[in-house]
Amino acid sequence: KKVDSIKHIETHISHVFIAGNYVYKIKKPVNFGFLDFTTLQKRRFYCHKEVELNSRLSKDLYKGIFPLFSSKEGLSFKKTENSKIVEYVIKMSRIDDNTILFNKIQDGRILHNQIDKVVEHIGMFHKKADTYTGRMSIYGNTVFSCEENFSQIKPYVNKTIEKKTYDRIVDYTRCFLKKNKKKFYERRRSGFVKEIHGDLHSQHISLGNPPIIFDCIEFNNRFRIDDVLNDISFLLMDLEYNGRFDLSEVVLNVYSDCYREAIDKEFIKFYKVYRAVVRGKVEGFISDTLNDEGKKSRVIKRARDYFSLAETYLDDSTQFNPVIFFGPSGSGKSTIAKEFSKFYKVIRSDEVRKSISGKSVDNHIYVGFGEDIYSAKMTEKTYNKMADIMLDDIKNGKKIILDATFLKKWQRDIVMGVCKNMGLNPFFVYFFAPQDLLFERIKMRIKEGKDISDAHEEILKKQLNEMEQPDELPSFRLLKLDTSQKKEEIVSTLKLFL
């Protein structure tokens, strides 16, 4: 059937064409050492391998493999008298982008009920997968892969990874491998080494009904035949890298219920470190191919974030303090913060601002943006004072929530600077909602007159126009939540890991 348009996406190993309800994939004739698609025969073999392996987790996604013929008339799926096969094409159903787990995370959706089904699917897949009985040494492969990572990352020290972080990761990894050599073999004898997915992260999961898990590794047995914990740990790390420690907690709990005998917390930690290191390494490689300085700096930041996440695993940093609730007025941050006041001291900018200006919190001061006690100078004083109070309270053993808009990077930098200097472990929660809901909440709040906030509609308009997106924050220290969802669900989401 004819389609209105065809979208071409090129990756380092494939050409992908999106046409209507279908996707067509052609493998490139490339050889990167870890994969070899250089001959037509090899590309045909790996097309069949891709369909066979992915069908384990996405039964109805793949529609077949078709030869692509070339003749004087051009390319066609139809064979003619003088045509010859030049490529093999995998045909798949098109997956709705709105169902992809990664995209839903970016949209600030909670997703707990949906991800349960996915993890049950993964757990049953791991349990039922054939146990590997071949001659390949999984321990030997792991040692080789880790040492390969270290040699490939070394040129990036002080570019994408700090020397201290690099040394810590190398020391931890080598020590773990030496100490747990027998355990690797025991886990293999126990049947935990299988043909896994190999590339299990949020961009390869569709939260449809039923869920679809696609794009497993077909091109290299070393990357696909491994301990099941390597697979699930990749997903855990990926969720945490995207700030979703709540989803990571859900995934681990559900997976443990499905396949409890496979669980080993120390191995999960090891594989999370390993997976974060691999992703950081790859981002470093990508940065070398980019000429655009903006794109290059963003990729280098991603690499740094992956390596920083790996280091937090070494610290076993499971308790975040301080926690920063931020977002525009009307986003619900103060409402949610109240739900944590039993266990956290909440430092609210509205209270601090009026305190240092000698005003009562009970008196509303409805002025324009940047006027009166909301001048730029007073705002700077407010954020610095909040940081001072925060630090004193943390030194006294308190858990802290900072509640403010943090519209600007410099405001967030104040907190990050203090945390870095003092070795603290901050976490930011960005609350947002559709604009019409924000304005509705502001109007309702003013009408009720029960809240100390002085924000009004004109202030909110200015905030939305001037707010700087928190792109500078480490990705694993930032959770984005759409507060148009139920308050109870948002609170329970945060309580899973705070």
Description:
By secondary structure, the chain is α/β, with parallel strands linked by helices. The protein folds into three domains: 6-94, Phosphorylase Kinase, domain 1; 99-315, Aminoglycoside 3'-phosphotransferase, Chain: A, domain 2 (Alpha-Beta Complex), CATH 3.90.1200.10; 323-495, Rossmann fold (3-Layer(aba) Sandwich), CATH 3.40.50.300. It is built from 18 helices and 15 strands. A six-stranded antiparallel sheet has the order 1-2-3-6-4-5, with helices on one face. It has a five-stranded parallel sheet with strand order 12-13-11-14-15. Strands 7-10 form a two-stranded antiparallel ribbon. The longest helix has 24 residues, at 265-288. The mean pLDDT is 95.
Find the CATH topology of the largest domain. Aminoglycoside 3'-phosphotransferase, Chain: A, domain 2
What's the mean pLDDT score? 95
* Amount of beta strand: 5-15%
Shape: globular
Cα gyration radius (Å): 26 Å
What's the level 1 CATH class of the largest domain?
A: Alpha Beta
End-to-end span in angstroms?
A: 52 Å
Low-confidence stretches: none
Give the strand order, joined by hyphens, for the main sheet: 1-2-3-6-4-5
Per CATH, which architecture of the largest domain?
Answer: Alpha-Beta Complex
The helix-and-strand class reads alpha/beta
List the total number of helices.
18
Major β-sheet profile: 6 strands, antiparallel
